[in-house]
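so my prof wants the structure for this chain in the tokens format not the other one, which i didnt know existed until like an hour ago. anyway here's the sequence
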Amino acid sequence: MEKKPSKKKFAVEAGETISDCLDRMADEGYTPVRRTEEPVFHEVKRNGRMEPEVKEQRIVFEGKLLQ
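here's what i got, hopefully its the right format
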């Protein structure tokens, strides 16, 4: 039998709702313990300089394996 890690991160994918992500976690046997939002940056050229700009926020859940 394959041993699963006790903690795993699940990101809400494009076109997926938060509920879909939580269902995917439950299907794999994990329960959410933490939600974080991570900024996704891209570079934009302004006044001849490349500057980072926030493109979107990515929602990431940390899941704990159910025993």
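also thought this was worth mentioning. The CA atoms of residues 11 and 60 lie 4 Å apart.
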